[in-house]
Amino acid sequence: MITSTPPRVISAWVQSIGNATPKQMSSFYTNDAILLATYSTLLTGKQEIYNYFVDFLNKKNMSCRILKNYTQNCSRGGCQISSGIYEFSFTDENGKRQIVVARYSYAVNGGLIINHHSSEDPE
Q: Against a cut of 0.70, is the pTM above it?
């Protein structure tokens, strides 16, 4: 069954992006999580993910919102897969508002993110 509601941890991730610390953002991931971020190499483990958020969160007025989401429940183990489109907005160093639309896929198990892929939307 496919639903449009993302798992709680993804909703919390999106709501926290504008005011969270790297420690808080990395707390949404398991210790051995994988993050293939839009503008980064493959990151493995909570420490690399933490380090990524140190730089990523260094933007003024950062916000995120989900534009489209599809969530599937795995048949075993309580895993959920969510894929969709989200939009980041922030103020750049010149004071101009920037908007980046990206695709995402999250795998969630036990209420935490075990795998996260994000890439700019080609459209």
A: yes
